[in-house]
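Key result, reporting period 2: structure in, sequence out.
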């Protein structure tokens, strides 16, 4: 992977551009003085030293002295992932308070739009964090075609003990989901192939997420207690109407 790509990844991770350049220089040098790292980064010595201190505070580089001269070295790159996981756990622990503040003054439904596979994955991640139970109507064939890593979502859902009721269009993949259901906290009921659509909706808590699997992948998340209750009532009517013996 080219250095410029690595630099962009570090910036997306949360580093400033100069910090990313200095961190990559540290990886390249191994262990060196501020001057040596500055030369590798192509940056002034004073700026490099400032960014090294920031990286030191972040736990991404280490420092030791030899004859009063400071030497810096990058920590194992795995520390990037460890720090990211720590940040994620910190946010998850505080999430109920954030959500409480977010919803304390909301009286009208809110609507959010997402585009592309990454957008759909963000919504699935939201479900994993918030849901105690889930209901869903969709097309298993479309879902697994669009989101190849959907099994990872299923695994995490099971780990978090989130049960799901799913209504699916009858297909080989849908019947596979039904067969595997008991071991994946999933109940499945099938509707005939004549009910054709290319999308999915999920309902949890007071939220509805609607996925479109058309040419332009997109998702809409609606947050409204009343609308979620209405969608749950409609789903439960369909669920109760489907004959278990036919499925």
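The corresponding designed sequence is given below.
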């Amino acid at each position: 992977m080219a250095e410029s790509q690595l630099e962009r990844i570090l910036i997306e991770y949360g580093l400033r551009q100069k910090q990313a350049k200095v961190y990559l220089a540290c990886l390249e040098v191994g262990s060196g003085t501020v001057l040596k790292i500055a030369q590798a980064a192509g940056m002034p010595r004073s700026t490099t030293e400032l960014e090294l201190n920031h990286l030191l505070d972040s736990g991404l580089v280490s420092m030791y002295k030899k004859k009063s001269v400071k030497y810096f070295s990058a920590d194992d790159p795995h520390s990037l992932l460890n720090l990211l996981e720590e940040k994620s756990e910190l946010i998850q622990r505080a999430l109920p308070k954030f959500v409480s503040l977010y919803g304390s003054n909301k009286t009208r439904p809110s609507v959010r739009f997402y585009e592309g596979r990454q957008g759909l994955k963000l919504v699935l991640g939201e479900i994993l964090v918030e849901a105690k139970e889930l209901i869903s109507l969709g097309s298993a064939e479309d879902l697994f075609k669009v989101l190849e890593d959907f099994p990872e979502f299923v695994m995490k859902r099971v780990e978090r003990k989130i049960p799901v009721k799913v209504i699916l269009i009858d297909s080989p993949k849908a019947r596979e989901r039904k067969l595997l259901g008991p071991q994946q906290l999933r109940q499945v009921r099938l509707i005939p192939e004549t009910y054709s659509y290319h999308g999915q909706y999920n309902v949890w808590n007071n939220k509805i997420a609607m996925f479109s699997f058309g040419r332009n992948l997109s998702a809409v998340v609606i947050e409204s207690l009343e609308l979620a209750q209405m969608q749950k009532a409609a789903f439960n009517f369909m669920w109760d109407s489907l004959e278990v013996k036919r499925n």
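The two ends are 49 Å apart (CA to CA). The longest strand covers residues 61-66. This case is discussed further under Risks and Mitigation.
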